[in-house]
Amino acid sequence: MEYKETIYKTPVKHGLVNYEKTYKNFNWDDINRCFDHFSDDGVNIAHEAIDRHAENGCKDKIAMYWEDEDNVEKRFSFSDIKRQSSKLANVLRNLGVEKGDRVFLFLPRTHELYVSIIAIAKLGAIAGPMFSAFGPEAVKDRLHDSEATVLITTPELSQRIDEIKEELPALKHTILVNAEKNLDEDEHSYESETNKASESFKIRWVDPEDDLFVLYTSGTTGKPKGVTHVHNDMISHYITTKWALDLRDDDVYWCTADPGWVTGTVYGIWGPWLNKVSQVVYNGRYDADKWYSIIEKYKVTVWYTAPTALRMLMKAGNEIIKKYDLSSLRYICSVGEPLNPEVIKWGLQVYNLPIHDNWWQTETGSIMIANFPSLPIKPGSMGKPFPGISAKIINSKGKVLAPGKHGLLGLKSGWPSMLRKVWANEEKYNEYFKISGWYTTGDTAYMDNDGYFWFVGRADDVINTAGHRVGPFEVESALVEHKAIAEAGVIGIPDTERSEIIKAFIVLNRGYKPSPTLKKEIQGFIKKRLAAHAYPREIEFTKDVPKTRSGKIMRRLLKARELGLPTGDLSTLEE
Ligand code: AMP
Fold this sequence. Notes:
By secondary structure, this protein is an alpha/beta fold. The chain folds into two domains: 19-446, ANL, N-terminal domain (Rossmann fold, 3-Layer(aba) Sandwich), CATH 3.40.50; 463-563, ANL, C-terminal domain (GMP Synthetase, Chain A, domain 3), CATH 3.30.300. It is built from 17 helices and 26 strands. Strand 8 and strand 9 form a beta hairpin. The longest helix has 17 residues, at 78-94. The chain starts with 18 loop residues before the first helix and ends in a 12-residue tail after the last helix. The protein binds adenosine monophosphate. One of its GO terms (molecular function) is ATP binding.
């Protein structure tokens, strides 16, 4: 929806001062010079993000203000993170972890999660962060596909995977944070091992093209795929954080995302620390009072969050805001789903600041399109391409479409943080580049006459619920594992708060009857098995699920029927 008003900005003095000029003259190679050790001898993002700051006069600067739901507070300086990550890197090396090995993280947002990701990078190993809301099925898929050798988790979360361990022959060690139980042979206590370890660790210099992290994300078909990024990503992480999030040396920054989502890894770890910025980590669930108290207490200046959270804050009302001093805030950004103009208007009213929407994906590794501090905001638009990024609206043959025309959002391939592979799946990787010269995003959009991009929707069946990307196939597969379910078709339906919610059409096995109790049971089953965010909020029991003659579920038809839209070509529908 195009919104007529434009929010004009006052001139800015820092960061990306002149968008047009910078866009025209931008060269990625110039950014390499911002790093300490970007040479043919090798690089390491952990050195650039942590160790160099700890060694160059910022050892006492706070890297992380940490707080949890019970108001426990901790502070970590850059030298604390350097020391603790070196200790853990030594522990991992003693367990046999080498460059290229996969170490997976199944942790809430404890400080150990952040330290672990740095430690893994120091070794040249590959980190695989996972949401702590995942159930056994989701964890198994990821560990199995990546052949992870080490898992770092808590005793509580590890119980969820006890039943699947047998199916993971590559998994050799589990490191448990806060283990108070007797440990099995393959289990190690995080605390006692790191206490014993040396705090001196020689960083492994790697090739910029060596793998850094793998994050699994959903497509329309098949299991989640392991989108793999490399150390060279640091070029994009560093400069996009500086220019799109407008971070400066003296900022206190809060990214509300979990590292299980790419936003939490890139802009909740690497981006701010490459920029030597102090950041806040809140390990807890959304709560309007708590969130505002965090901004007040830590005097947060830059806040990066998501539309669903902003809509929930809007729903919590304006009175609550009056209880807190939010005057430290100077810049707000949002990502993950369409940001509706109403929220921007509300933000202007209550925070006295515009909210800057930006667009990117797990695969792009960094912000691609953004509303920049120096540009006017058109509420509802994702903004303009980042310098060095060529974004265009194209058709299925790669022809660039004129302004105003809806089409596929394509990016000219080759920026530093573009995905380098899909783990063990070259075919999936190649699918992104089917249109010659272009990386295709799977999104549809249009560009207006001023060069602003507007999100239209997904070109595929992928569901975006509260910023979580969910593949319908994964939910369908988990559903049919329930004893009552014979068949299931899953779609996303529009929702004012969460962008979309998941709806499942379910055919029951003989002997089972539809009932509200069964619905609840099925929802609980998916929450536990797959992930808390991936359960169908709506369930409709039906006699059959429409399929093509070749047996594929026709989600397009389910959606058209649900939304009262034209059903299109039905020639392939099974009779
Ligand atoms: P993920 O890789 O999980 O971050 O999901 C990326 C997808 O989220 C994109 O392909 C879009 O469909 C959606 N998305 C991300 N940012 C925005 C945005 N600013 N506006 C609309 N959709 C977005």
